[in-house]
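User: Hey, quick favor. My workstation is busy. Could you predict this chain's structure for me?
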Amino acid sequence: MKARSITGSSAAAIKIALEKSMADGYTPTLAVIFLTEIKDIDEITATMDAAGISIFGASTSEKFNEDGIDPTGIVIMLLDMNADNFKIVLKDFESPATAYEAACQVGEAGKNYFDHPAFIISTADIRIPGQEIIKGLLNKAGADITIIGGAAGEPVTFSGTVFTNQSKSNSGLISLILDEDKVDVKGVAVSGWKPVGIEKRITKSDGNWVFTIDDEPAIEVVKKFLGKEIVMTDKATGLDTYPLQVQRAFGKPMMRPIIFWNEEDKSIMLGAPVEEGDKFRFSLPPDFEVIDTVIESTKTIKENELPDADAMIVFSCVGRLSQLGPMLSAELNGLAATWNKPMAGFFSLGEFGKLDDTRPEFHGTTVSWVALKEK
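Assistant: No problem, here it is.
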């Protein structure tokens, strides 16, 4: 399989770039498309349809490829994968409450298509519970399946669009389903954040909302750790704060970024649900060791599982964009350099993947990446 990257500032520019890419006889069957302007979707879809190219697409405020970050344009990775080795499924949600059911349908479809399906996914609508997506896929496709992905959207309205050749949705699940008997699919979710301080306990919570920590108002505990005033309005974004590291019985901790806070009841909203009694530690400010940990994860898989790859897809939490600052370029360059093949990705509102040898889960402030190699 051969992958090629194309970019453009508009749908018209993408049409020209695609024609140039195919001028030497290259015949892609699949396009992974990340863009900012939703109005470009229909025109780009028409271009890909005319060329017989299937689409896995998502809208996002910032996206990137092996050449760096593109804040406003269109990033596309073309693949000439055997069309028998992949399927694309998009399921709408009638409401966030139906996310599990939709994920079950996608998982069942994957199992019907292939004996050993792997799922590269994206969701639109931050209200969609990521853990329910994971649960539905695992229940229908098998507990040992590969799931990698990220939630689409931009970090102001927390909304986005996922799209295929036939449909688009601002409240749905899109999945690129791969036949793992024909395509190697290797990847993990990794954060690199280092913990600091003693363990603290969540003493009152409801879903994503945490009201008290060690029986103190949650926001007051966070303020004490940060050592500064962080709340100026009733609700404020928390993407510039460092994640909570929620402990698990075994394995690495779960990263839970602070998304909102409410001064009236002193609560905080995390990027995924937690339970009363969960223990966590705060995270240190990021340094180059955070980046080194992420890059090392690719080198480990290259050395032990996948010496060569054809392409790479990356979902990096939008929180890393602000938290890492200029260091983020070093992280993206390191990821791309591991296999030195085309890469496409975007900054997500939550990530799907395995932290270690356990089952896939829904995360925040991580990098969820996947390398592909057609057999």
